[in-house]
Structures are given as C-alpha cells and as structure tokens.
Amino acid sequence: MSKIILTGDRPTGRLHVGHYVGSLKRRVELQNSGEFDDIYIMIADAQALTDNADNPEKVRQNIVEVALDYLACGLDPAKSTILIQSMVPELTELSFYYMNLVTVSRLQRNPTVKSEIQMRNFETSIPVGFFTYPISQAADITAFKATTVPVGEDQMPMIEQTREIVHKFNAVYGDTLVEPEILLPDNKACLRLPGTDGKAKMSKSLGNCIYLADTDEDVRKKIMSMFTDPNHLRVEDPGEVEGNPVFIYLDAFGTKEHFEEFLPEYEGLDELKAHYKRGGLGDVKVKKFLNNVMQSVLAPIRERRKVWEKDIPAVYDILKEGSEKAEKVAAKTLAEVRAAMKINYFDDGALIREQAEKYK
Ligand code: TRP
After folding, report:
1. In the chain, which ranges are continuous DSSP H helix?
2. pTM to 2 decimal places
3. Ligand 1 atom 5: the closest Cα is on which residue?
4. 30 lines ligand 1 (CB under 6 A)
C-alpha cells in the first residue's frame, strides 16, 4: 500500500516558531526522507471560515502568508502538493455524506472542539459549520487516502474521529476508505511550545509569538524580554528550569552544535540547566544564547522567504497547480465513495437495466 501524508493549517495568521518546531520542521524531514509516495499540505481556508465567517478578508490575506512560510521552511512543490482546501469542492461533498455516520453527541464529546468553543465564547451560538469541522477534516484526510497525518497532540481527537468514520463507512458500504495514523512530534518540548510570556499557548491576540517572518531584530527583542522564572531575581539566586520558557525553547531548538558554536564553556543543556538551578547563572546570558540559537535556526528560513516574497505570482501558481492536482485525486475517491453508497446512478448500467426490467 502506498504511504501518503496529508496535513495542513488554518490560514488565520502567519506561522510562528511553535508551528515550526511542532510540525513544519518534521514535514520537511518527512518530505526529504523519500519514504512517502505522496505528500499533501493543505491550507485549510474552509475550516478557517468555520469560526471566521464574518472575516473572509483575514483568511484571504493569510493564504499567501502561510504558503510563503511553507516554502520558507523548505517545503518543495516538486515533492509536496500544496493545496487550498476550498479549491477542492469534492471535500465538501464527502463531508456531507460522512455527516450521516456521526452523531451530535459524538461531536459534543470532542475535547478539542469543546475547548475551542470555550475559548471563542460561542456557548449557545455555536456555528453548525464549526461544530462539524471534525467531519470535514475527516474528508480532507480520506479524500487523499492518507495513511499518515503528522499533527500536534491537539489534533488527536480529529484523527480518532476520522478513524471512526472510516470504520463505519467501510462497514456499511464496503471497503473504500483508508484508516489514517497520527504521527506526533517526537521531541516532547515540541508538543506545545509556550508563548514568550510563559502562557501555555502562542496566540496572535496575546502578542506572545515569534513569527517565522520576524526580522532578526524583532526576534532578539522578543527573546530578551521573555518571561523566565519570576523568583530568579539576582544572578546568585537558584532558578527553576521546569516550565521556564527560555529553557523550554532551548529544549526544543538547541543542539550540541549550538553549544559548540555559541556557548562552548558548557557541555550541553543539562550542564546549563544544572548551573541555573544551583544559582550563579543570569537570565541575560541564557537569553543571549537562546537568541543565537533562534537566529541560526531562523536565518535560512527568513532568507528563503525573502526570495519567494519577490515572486508572489509564482506562489499563487504553485497553489493553483497543487489544488488542481489534488482535485483530481479527490474526485477519484469521491467517485469510489458514490459507487460504494450506490448514488452513482448514471454510471451504473446494471441499475438502469434492472429498473427497465421492472417495467417490462
Ligand atoms: N485542524 C488543523 C488546524 O487547526 C488544520 C487541518 C484541516 C488539518 N484539515 C486537516 C490538519 C487535515 C491535518 C489534517 O490547523
């Protein structure tokens, strides 16, 4: 069986370092591993509209931003198909059929949807489209017969929902769809990178993100004013590394090579942490190191982004070609789904003969 990847992002803002370390970096590695027959990366504009119905301009503007971030990170249109969700209308039709296989109470139990409803204060005014987006996500995944979905842990309920739909569909209509596996990030610090203010999640509204498109000066400022251990007031004080964003970022981004290059007086992160815990290591020194680490990770990304920014029409061409290619694949799956569901009336010679027979 072929190995096929599908994953994606909602275009509601530029991508930040949390996206990079949690998924983009891995995607590029998977792309370059040569282990996959097909890779689809979806800009999920229709899903973004499920909670931004009144703000289509935001979604429209951010499509190219997300595409630029993808290309900047090293996603290569020759190896990965980058597509826009709404440009593949087959996905909408699949969603509509899958809706019959999912109960309202099952959707209500989805923990990610639950917490998103709370965050957005939807309470009693939940848009139906938003409520059902896990079903549309199942369509995204199954349309391409994806076997592997590399996403963060918050997406686990969506993949479970997809697997249930696949099970049910195949049981009711016969083997048609492929059950996907989730592929979680392997470095624990990458599961959820906190904001620079120490808050659990990076979010544009909190202003606590480091974006891939930030200038080196922006990045430096954000790092030098990052939240650390609030009880570590003087250099001599013992400090806490658990839950300290500066150390979480070092866990996520720092390598042995970074120590050799920027902080050779330490063996590695364990030794740096031990010094901080014991006391005698100041925040400024750790932050300067983190700045060097982040700059060396982000510089090549920023440079590649600048190159693509000079040719925006080419970026749209990539999205158009990717969407067209994706639509062909989704159309094939949709035809199989319709045949399995016996709603392929005009392609079914046997049906026509049978009905004709009845009236002879
Ligand atoms: N839900 C994902 C997000 O919030 C985006 C997404 C849409 C997606 N469809 C997908 C991810 C299919 C993986 C597979 O960013």
Report:
1. 17-19, 25-33, 45-49, 56-73, 90-98, 104-108, 111-119, 128-131, 133-143, 156-173, 216-224, 245-253, 256-262, 269-278, 283-309, 312-340, 349-358
2. 0.94
3. 9
4. no
